[in-house]
Amino acid sequence: xxxxxxxxxxxxxxxxxxxxxxxxxxxxxxxxxxxxxxxxxxxxxxxxxxxxxxxxxxxxxxxxxxxxxxxxxxxxxxxxxxxxxxxxxxxxxxxxxxxxxxxxxxxxxxxxxxxxxxxxxxxxxxxxxxxxxxxxxxxxxxxxxxxxxxxxxxxxxxxxxxxxxxxxxxxxxxxxxxxxxxxxxxxxxxxxxxxxxxxxxxxxxxxxxxxxxxxxxxxxxxxxxxxxxxxxxxxxxxxxxxxxxxxxxxxxxxxxxxxxxxxxxxxxxxxxxxxxxxxxxxxxxxxxxxxxxxxxxxxxxxxxxxxxxxxxxxxxxxxxxxxxxxxxxxxxxxxxxxxxxxxxxxxxxxxxxxxxxxxxxxxxxxxxxxxxxxxxxxxxxxxxxxxxxxxxxxxxxxxxxxxxxxxxxxxxxxxxxxxxxxxx
Length: 424
Known about the structure:
Layout: H1 5-31, H2 34-55, H3 61-84, H4 91-109, H5 114-124, H6 131-141, H7 147-154, H8 158-174, H9 184-206, E1 210-211, H10 217-233, H11 238-251, H12 277-292, H13 299-312, H14 321-334, H15 338-352, H16 354-362, H17 375-386, H18 390-403, E2 405-406, H19 407-423
Parallel strand pairs: 1-2
């Protein structure tokens, strides 16, 4: 069958998604500037777009891109200093130094990419950057997404994402952030930052904070791929496997989370036959790995254990809510948070009745951080509805609907409020 130009462009897109992070990582180690490294990688991509439609996709496209980028990188090393110096007498000395740098570049770029990728992960998620900048830069460099794709995923203008990425690269350069894997206490702190960024990306895909769609599977897939990469690069970090486990199990439900018209379907109403068993098995295996590394389980591993309770239940009625409530209690000790307490209240209500859940939720109504958090009145409204206090439930659900920025969720909450009005 003849290969069309569109086939080649699809192949280039796929190759770029797979190879770009390794390409940028290898180049960053050499040129010591993430912006320059990305420019060199983009040059290689442009060369592929120009040449592959004529010559065909090479047998090893990743190596082809790397070879082009290496040549461009050598040119940068050769030309850059020469252009900055006007003194002819220094020309021969500089040329000799740069000629010797070329083989070093070749040798360095042929090294195993694992350490380079890990360094790229840590620099993309460096705490010197804002959370929004870390997310944008990580998706750009490690996820291989364009600024337009990132902007559409987070429902912000493309110019906003472009500015975040440019500022992030400039900040890393100005602060002279080293291209290295941190050690000791800094390593632990930076791992937390990396996992936080990946989790934010996944969570936005799993339960979109705004827009017309309740889920954005593409973001979940990007986060999962990033998590799997980090798990391979840091195999002895329990929390990395905990996060991967959590994302695998949560992602297994994506097909069941929405109806045929995109309407939300809550966990207890989902058709469990639609849950992806392959992802569930992968998630349970990752959780087992996290537990096997010893020590107390961290936040992500505990959340994964909660997700596993749901995954193991063949029906909603078989869910071990008492264990889930206990796991949320442990999670509250590891990472105290009003949101964790809100989730614990839901588990307690399922295990011991809505009155017990409402008692816990009522202690959170004066919590300042939850003042505009739509899930607080949503959960409280659900408990009141189950207790037959329909007028109060309706008011809470309508308030929740006014606070959410997601159109699908707003419709769901207003539908429930109407049901309460009819019951009242």
